[in-house]
Amino acid sequence: MARIVRFHRLGGPEVLDIEQAEIAEPREGEVWIRAHAFGLNRAESLFRRGLYIEQPDLPSGTGLEAAGVVESVGPRVTGLSVGDRVALIPPISMRKRPVHAEVVNVPAEFVVPIPVGQMFEEAAATWMAYLTAYGGLLEVAALGAGDHVVITAASSSVGLAAIQIVNAVGGVAIAVTRSDSKRAALLAAGAAHVVVSDGEGVADAIRGASGQRGPRLLFDAVGGRLLPELVAAAASGGIIVNYGAQDAVASELPPAALLAKSLTLRGYLVHELVRDGPRLAAAKAFILDHLASGALRPIISRTFPLEEIRAAYAHLETGEQFGKIVVTV
Asked: What is the pLDDT of residue 319?
């Protein structure tokens, strides 16, 4: 028996419970992990409210990120041994493979070693953020040295991961945030420029930070009312990669601007990367190499014990954090 995080009805953090459940032994190709830390994501909040890309089967587990120790391996698993410190790649389906439990069975191909010196809390804060940023920036948008890159929701875990990846390849990170209160922290985290989105003149401020031509690459988690500003700011031939919808208001996009600038507006899901073995291997190699060099390092905003899982998600949903919310087990 192990404790799991589960909900029996849709709603806010108040619907989450910690329950006891029996965990089956690992089957062929699976690994049994005892978790030490969970990373929290907005996707889990959307899933719990019935607003995600897949719907939960009630009662439902939850969770996309965890880190811990291998306790057992199933038949035909190679390269992993009992006692290994590991983190989990986000599953393709949270409905089928929720990972916020004391013990979880996962396919071995979604298990990655924790680098020497990395704590469980940092490992649980790594893979959703860096895989999302890597896929959107390097694979979809072909980020290169010298590129000015606009990063919205810049104080989120993915936003901060994107700043680090942009810097690692020699780009220039332009952080967009809702208020001026996080400016100093974003500059300290590696942003070259900070633009405040709660106000007028957002497009002009972005163009001013990137040069008269405007940025070629815009990495967006907000959508809604901010998206037309990004279109106005973008360079001709630019690409806007959208991976989130923090603003639920429908965007009023100016078709003439999209046409006149020959812009690409591309939706991106990290699942595109996770379900493709060779692409995932390349992403893992990049992330592990740059974690080892120190170019990438997860920023943790706050940790909560498992018993305070509701408070942890309530804090996440305020949007006031700077970096990742982590739950310790």
From this structure: 86
Dist CA 244 CA 150 (whole Å): 15
Distance from CA of residue 37 to its chain's centroid? 16
Per residue in 83-127, pLDDT (tens digit) is 999 999 999 899 999 999 999 999 999 999 999 999 999 999 999
Q: Which two tokens stand for residue 270?
A: 């990290």
Find, among 324, 296, 298, the residue nearest to 312 by Cα: 324
Residues of 243-262 as b/e, b for ≥16 C-beta within 10 angstroms?
A: bbbbbeeebeeeeeeeeebe
Q: Which one-letter DSSP state was computed for residue 138?
A: I
Which candidate, 132, 71, 59, places its Cα nearest to that of 106?
71
Residue pointed to by tokens 């100016």 = 254
- The C-alpha atoms of residue 114 and residue 231 are separated, in whole angstroms, by 39
Rounded CA gap, 102 and 180, in Å? 39
pLDDT tens profile 272-314:
999 999 999 999 999 999 999 999 999 999 999 999 999 999 9
Encoded tokens for 301 = 């905003």
Nearest to 208 by CA among 150, 260, 264, 261: 150
Q: Work out whether strand 16-21 and strand 2-7 pair parallel, antiparallel, or are unpaired.
A: antiparallel
Which tokens is 258 given?
């999209």
